[in-house]
Amino acid sequence: MTKSVAVLMGGTSAERAVSLVSGTDCANALRKSGFQVTCIDVTSDIRAVIDALKAQKPDVVFNALHGRHGEDGKIQGLLDLLGIPYTYSGVLASAVAMDKQKAKILFGAVGIPCPEGRVMTLDQIGSCADLEPPYVIKPNAEGSSVGVYIVRPGDNRVPIREWPFGDTALVETFIPGRELTVGVMGDRALGVTELRPQGGFYDYESKYTDGKTVHLCPAPIPDDIARLAMEYAVTAHRILGCLGVSRSDFRYADTAGDPGQLYLLELNTQPGMTPLSLVPEQAAHAGIPFGELVTWMVEHAACDS
Does residue 247 carry a catalytic annotation? Predict the structure, then answer.
């Protein structure tokens, strides 16, 4: 049985604060389950991370990092080289899922509908006359709805002048309707949750501020749509080669009435584990307490080496 776990948390991405909360909660739950747990606050000093892991010699790493460098395959590659099993997906699945447009190509290849979109340079976005609102502008390689903007009819300003996410962005057709999400644990879908933000859309603030979004679990949607969402989530998990836990986010376009059209927006290989996070909530609804969930993740940790 695994006895020692090192929790990697923090990181240098825009999701550092979320990662610190996820890591702390997971560490506390693992301690209560009898594991010897140490926490490593990951910074840009990778040598310090390597030295800490070599000194602690954990049986497993619980990777509670989010965003760039934490869930894009880079830290996974380092852990593979060190020969330490870790939670969540490996290098390839992590890297492909983080590149939203590449992941959508794979999803489309197995028949999962996704919003139409393309990666464009900021200059192209600013000068493109054929972009008809409403459409969505977002980073192609960030999570937690960081940097997501919806350009609606009548808007006279495209928010790219202050864009801090590189020289390109993913531009997608805006899908009206409801926000749905499905957690996957191993080979099973945990359930479907509908997310109803109290104002605007389901952005970073709505995700991580208590009271900003109502979570409806199970989602009040037709049974056949719920089954389809769970089927798509498991298929997406498998087609990317994900391991452990993942979460797929959908838009359910039902503004013209039922049945509507389901669209997969993206798959998150390392969903949050905060008190407001969706996978722990769905697991609890399925009869899996938080401590049991993170213990399962540790026990199913793997290494590509």
Answer: yes
**CA proximity to 256, closest of 175, 181, 185:** 175
**Which position has the token pair 């290989």?**
269
Q: Exactly one of 19, 63, 89, 144 is catalytic; which is it? A: 144
Q: Residue holding tokens 């997971």?
A: 26
Q: Write down the catalytic residue from 10, 11, 13, 15.
A: 15
33 φ, ψ (degrees, to nearest 5): -90, 5
Radius of gyration, CA atoms only, the chain: 19
Packing angle between helix 100-109 and helix 91-98, nearest 10 degrees?
Answer: 100
pLDDT: is 257 or 43 the higher one? 43
- Give the tokens for residue 60: 């497993």
User: Has 71 been annotated as catalytic?
Assistant: no
Per the CB < 8 A criterion, the answer to whether 102 and 117 are in contact is: no
| Catalytic residue selected from 88, 135, 208, 232 | 208
β-bridge pairing 4-10 and 36-42: parallel
116 is annotated as an active-site residue: no
Q: What are phi and psi of 257, to 5 degrees?
A: 110, 170
Annotation marks residue 15 as catalytic = yes
Known active-site residue 266: yes
Q: Which two tokens stand for residue 48?
A: 């310090």
Residue (of 171, 191, 170, 173) closest to 181 by Cα position: 191
Is 268 annotated in the active site?
A: yes
Yes or no: say if 65 and 86 are a contact pair by the CB < 8 Å rule: no
List pLDDT tens digits, range 59-105.
Answer: 999 999 998 888 999 999 999 999 999 999 999 999 999 999 999 99
Instruction: For residues 270 and 246, give the distance between their C-alpha atoms in angstroms, rounded to a whole number.
Output: 6
Alpha carbon distance 91, 224 (integer Å): 34
